[in-house]
Specification:
It is a single chain. The chain has 106 residues and is mainly α. The chain has helices spanning 3-10, 12-16, 50-59, 74-81, 86-102. The chain is built from five helices and no strands.
Length: 106
């Protein structure tokens, strides 16, 4: 899968929206509303949960009781794009974590 196709098919913008608040154009097709990614720190006692976010990006979220998660698991997607180079996968996930941290509401 090319990087361009990866961005097009699995972009978080489609679900979380340009402002990362969970109102992207694909939400009409989802079972549940995506979370507002700008309030991660607020929802974790004011501290951005970097380890939690990294784990979710790498491994996905626990499947809900009724059905599976709509969120793609980024670890395997990045691995496929990067030729299974773990250092590149770690860099991509770290970059996403830092980007999400920068979006936190003050």
């Amino acid at each position: 899968m090319s990087r361009r196709l990866l961005r097009k098919k699995h972009s978080s913008l489609a679900c979380h929206g340009k402002d990362a608040k969970g109102a992207g154009p694909a939400t009409v097709d989802l079972k549940s509303t995506p979370p507002d990614l700008t309030t991660l720190a607020k929802r974790h006692d004011g501290k951005f949960p970097a380890d939690y976010v990294s784990n979710v990006l790498r491994n996905g979220v626990k499947a809900p009781a009724h059905g599976s998660s709509d969120m793609p698991v980024w670890g395997p997607l990045f691995a496929a794009v990067d030729g299974h180079d773990e250092a590149l996968v770690n860099m991509r996930i770290s970059n996403l974590v830092h980007y999400l941290e920068s979006l936190q509401a003050k």
